[in-house]
Each structure stands twice: as C-alpha cells, then as structure tokens.
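Journal club prep — side note

Before the paper discussion, L.F. wants everyone to see what a predicted structure for a comparable chain looks like in token form. Sequence:
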Amino acid sequence: MKDNKKNEEEQVVKNVAQAEQILEQEEALKHSTEEATPAPAEVQPTTPTKGRRRGSDRERRGPPKRSSLTDSGLVEKVVSINRVSKTTKGGTRLAFSALVVVGDTKGKVGYGLGKAGEVATAIKKGLNAARKSMIFIPRRGTTITHEILGKYGSASVLLKPASEGTGVIAAGAVRAVCDGAGISNILTKCHRSNNPINVVKATFEGLSRLKVIKVITEN
C-alpha cells in the first residue's frame, strides 16, 4: 500500500517536471520567433490624391473667391462657381459654370457667365464675356449719384449713396460689382432671392439706370 502511494507521488513529480520543461521550451521558442520577426513599420498618413472629388468640402466652404489685378489695370473677381451634372446614356457628365465680374475701378464694370467642362476654362470664358459687356456707372465721388432699386427675376437690390468713410455695406455678389466699378462708399440690401447670378444682374440693372447729376453754376 505504501509502495503504491510512493510510486504515485513519484509519477506526479515526474509529470510536473515534464510540464515545466515543456513550458520553458515554448517560452524560449516564442522569444526566438519574436526576435526573428521585424517590427512593423509605422504607417504614414496618406495625402489625398489630385483626382479626389471635392464634393461636400467645396459646398461646406462655399464657392472659391478669386480677385486679381491684370496688367491692363482691370480687377477680376470670381463671384461663384457651380458644378452641374447631366445624366446621359453613357453616364453622368460633369460641367462647371463660373460667374465673373471685371472692372477698372474707374466707373466701368461688366459681368460674364462662362460654362465648360473644367473650372479654368469656365473662368476664362466668363472673363472674356465680362470684358465685352462692360458699362459705365455714373458716380459722385466715391459713391453713386442717387438711391435706386434694381430688379431682375425674383431678386431685387436696393442701392443707396453713403457718406465718406462708410465703406461698402454689401454682400459678396454686390460687393464684387461695387469694387469693380470703384464704388467705395455705398449702402445696399438684397431682397427676396439670394441667387448670385440674379443678384448680380439686378445690381447691374439698377446701376445702369443711374442718372448723371449736373451742377449748373450761375455766372
């Protein structure tokens, strides 16, 4: 009886020793494999490609504004750029329309709407159309001659002369026209529609009806 119990204890000790030996071998093998495998390289953040669609980023930021002074002394401003799509049998075709205002800051200003498959081409077409449609705006110093209301479609723009130091109190589309014409003091208010194309046309409709004030001096 005692011999059997002693044999069982010896067998348990042998089994524990074998188990400890197996665990040590597995740990050694694990460390050797970890040292052999190279550390993973750091993942660098990827930059967006040039062909990435601008999509919602552009609508969230709003249309890009560009203002530049050319060699001829004309001020060019891009008021808005719209992306339009046309679904055809072959798929969806994308195009762009650019509303541009051009002025010499001395009373002459014009606008143009260019459409093309690329933004640069649309802006170029708009600039060419704006240069051809320039009109003369009567001014009295740095403001307009009198109050007037311009209308086009569902948009109406109220234009009021202002004293020196007031500045241009106007939204983006009306401000572009005023800057191009060289009007630095004016009060404006857009009613009803806020469509940039209609607002620009309403502004031009009002400015084109301004009258020249003549001062008659008595001898």
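L.F.'s comment for the group: Helices lie at 2-36, 55-61, 119-132, 172-181, 196-208. Keep this in mind when we get to the figures.
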